[in-house]
Specification:
The complex is a heterodimer.
Chain A: E1 2-7, H1 16-26, E2 32-37, E3 40-43, H2 47-52, E4 60-66, H3 70-84
Antiparallel strand pairs in A: 1-4, 2-3, 2-4
Chain B: E1 2-5, E2 7-8, E3 13-20, H1 36-80, H2 83-96, H3 100-116, H4 121-141, E4 155-159, H5 164-169, E5 175-180, H6 188-195, E6 200-202, E7 214-218, E8 223-226, H7 230-251, E9 267-272, H8 278-283, E10 288-293, H9 295-299, H10 307-320, E11 325-329, H11 357-362, H12 364-377, E12 382-387, H13 393-412, E13 421-426, H14 429-433, H15 435-439, E14 444-447, H16 449-457, H17 475-490, E15 494-497, H18 508-514, E16 518-521, H19 523-534
Parallel strand pairs in B: 3-4, 4-5, 5-6, 9-10, 9-16, 10-11, 11-12, 12-13, 13-14, 14-15, 15-16
Antiparallel strand pairs in B: 1-8, 2-6, 3-7, 7-8
Helix pairs in contact in B: 1-2, 1-4, 2-3, 3-4, 10-12, 12-13
The chains are: A alpha+beta, B alpha/beta.
Chain lengths: 85, 539
């Protein structure tokens, strides 16, 4: 399993549009992708639960990938977070 | 006749019958299903249709109201693709052997409860989105999709509040005006009403029994007349007729290019004083914003506005302009624009005193905060920055150094920003005379004709006694404008006018002949000037 930490800088947090984009990105990989905030984990391939985490600006999340393409997934997702969130 | 008052969003008159709009809170019947496979197929077909509708609405809204307002439909389409949402409906149909409408309603309720219970206002508000998509599905399933909110007759829509998703879907031709109980002057709905050029009143204590009654919305006075008497009706009909005639002419100009008969293009932009004016810019179809006076942020506050406050304002404008140029003038306070917390000393001659860039270059902390906010907002649209009251090359170089410092800081903090054009206001005779030197430092010039005229003619604008000495067409001013344009072009600067003279239609031809690249005027002048430009031949 691979992980990285990220502090969200987008002013409304992981709101609907970036969440949707993240889902699209996560679905490209076979690995299970999860976003964790304060002990709560959400499947990054599912929009509603991801939004249900309610990640706000300034909050830290942990992103993890587990599966055959976890290396590629974590690299790409890290740059996705940097660019979009 | 009864009268009700509210806050007016758009100065126009609407006369017509009232339609009392209620959200589609329909009661869904739960029915037992024998053929589960058929029901699942029916559901899947409806879901595909809903997504298709949303894609079409997204396209339509992009054109009508810009990317920021259109995004809601994109989000709705994504929600309909969500695995959990889809699975939940399928699961309910299969396990409870019930109709798809019921399954969609139940699922919508569950997810919207999840959002409603969140503690952040943004996420709370998403509860309405989930309800919205379930309603769309249910409408398609029950064959109500063709049903228009509005019937054959044009109406004044009265509602508690209206979401952008609701207003965009209404048939504009049948929409005379809005009257709502909630909403603010800066809400999505208010901006949409302005964009759609229809009168709207908010904060009105609405009643369901108004449905079907004749009413007049007077957007000029902020009054709703219910069942108006003959005299009132006649008076407002006359006013409406006058508006219509002006508008008819101007609507012909919307979407048209700003180009002369012989093919000279000019950029026709609008001046704004705050976020709330953006709707006027869009409604009048300006190609961009040529002067965004950032002072309002400072004058409306009790202390220097922080970076976030400024960033949000600039970002909102940039996003709503959806890629069109937004030229923000940095803080231009002092002289006639004062607030207590500036603590500026009283001056003998404030117009020539401590103001604008002179303050910014001394208080670089205030200046840097604004530049940071502007640069951050540039990641969300096409922002350009211009600096007021320039008199020397040295000032411009100092500004550019500070600008580079701010950029460097943002880079180090990995905060994104876009490409930003930098320009200066030419509003002092000094700047005119060295415009060839200044042009080598910046991307564009914007001529502030009000100050330039006052300084050139040595006539105080505030002194009414001097009005008959004031000649805005003074050859000295016009020669200066000519000189600025020539010097600008020699060194690769484009040149615009953002002062009041820009809207003087007796000079439009002269400016075009001089080679001016951009005119920025009050939103209301954009279409009349466009009409004029399109009838000119420069030769």
């Amino acid at each position: 399993m691979k992980t990285f930490h990220y502090t969200v800088t987008d002013e409304v947090g992981i709101h609907a549009r970036p969440a949707g984009a993240l889902v699209k990105e996560a679905k490209k990989y076979e690995s299970a992708i999860r976003v964790e905030k304060g002990g709560k984990k959400a499947d990054a391939k599912k929009l509603m639960v991801l939004m249900g985490l309610g990640v706000k600006c300034g909050e830290e999340v942990t992103v993890e990938a587990e599966g055959p393409d976890e290396d590629a997934a974590i690299t790409e997702l890290e740059s996705f977070f940097n660019e979009n969130l | 006749m009864d009268t009700y008052t509210g806050k007016s969003i758009f100065k126009k008159i609407a006369i017509g019958k009232i339609l009392f709009y209620q959200k589609g809170e329909q009661t869904i019947k739960r029915t037992h299903i024998e053929d589960i496979d058929a029901e699942l197929k029916r559901y899947e077909k409806a879901r595909a249709a809903a997504i298709k509708q949303l894609d079409a609405l997204h396209e339509k809204a992009l054109k009508e109201v810009g990317e920021a307002n259109a995004a809601v439909f994109e989000v709705h389409a994504m929600m309909l693709e969500d695995d959990d949402y889809v699975d939940s409906i399928v699961n309910i149909i299969e396990s409870q052997q019930v109709n798809a409408e019921f399954a969609a309603a139940t699922t919508g309720d569950n997810f919207s409860k999840m959002f409603a219970n969140m503690d952040d206002d943004y996420f709370k508000a998403r509860a309405a989105d989930v309800k919205d998509i379930s309603e769309r599905l249910i409408n398609i399933l029950s064959g109500k999709e063709g049903d228009q909110v509005i019937g054959d007759q044009p109406v004044i829509v009265v509602a508690d509040d209206l979401a952008p998703s609701e207003t965009v879907q209404m048939d504009k031709k049948k929409l005379l005006g809005f009257v709502t109980k909630y909403g603010s002057a800066n809400s999505h709905t208010a901006i949409l009403a302005r964009t759609m050029n229809i009168p709207a009143l908010i904060g009105v204590d609405i009643q369901e029994e108004w449905n079907g009654k004749l009413a007049v919305v007077d957007g000029y006075e902020g009054i709703l007349y219910l069942e108006p008497d003959g005299e009132t009706l006649a008076r407002l009909q006359k006013r409406q007729q006058e508006d219509l005639e002006t508008e008819k002419l101007l609507q012909q100009m919307k979407g048209k290019e700003d180009v002369t008969l012989d093919g000279r293009h000019i950029r026709l932009y609008a001046n704004i004083g705050g976020v709330k004016d953006v709707a006027d810019v869009l409604a009048n179809d300006a190609a961009g914003i040529g002067l965004f006076r950032s002072e309002f942020l400072y004058l409306e506050a009790n202390d220097y506005p922080d970076e976030e406050t400024q960033f949000r304002a600039y970002k909102t404008v940039a996003e709503n302009m959806a890629g069109r140029k937004v030229i923000v003038r940095t803080l231009d306070i002092g002289a006639d624009k004062q607030a207590d917390y500036f603590k500026l000393d009283k001056e003998e001659n404030p117009a020539m005193g401590y103001r604008a860039i002179r303050i910014c270059l001394e208080h670089t902390d205030i200046f840097k905060t604004q530049l940071r906010a502007l640069l951050r907002a540039s990641a969300f649209g096409n922002i350009a920055i211009m600096y007021p009251m320039i008199i020397s090359v040295d000032e411009v170089r100092k500004i550019k150094r500070i600008f580079e410092e701010v950029k460097q800081e943002l880079k180090e903090q990995e905060i994104p920003f876009g490409d930003v054009e930098q320009g200066i206001m030419i509003e002092t005779p000094a700047a005119v005379l060295i415009s060839d030197m200044l042009a080598q430092e910046v991307d564009f010039f914007s001529i502030g004709t009000n100050d330039l005229t006052q300084y050139t003619l040595a006539i105080d604008r505030q002194n009414m006694k001097l009005d008959h000495f004031y000649d805005s067409h003074h050859p000295a001013v016009l020669r200066m404008i000519q000189m600025i344009i020539e010097n600008g072009h020699k060194h690769g600067c484009w040149v615009g006018i953002c002062g009041e003279l820009g809207a003087d239609m007796t000079l439009t031809k002269t400016f075009l002949e001089m080679g001016l690249d951009e005119l920025s005027v009050s939103p209301a002048f954009v279409l009349p000037i466009r009409k004029m430009i399109r009838e000119l031949s420069i030769g």
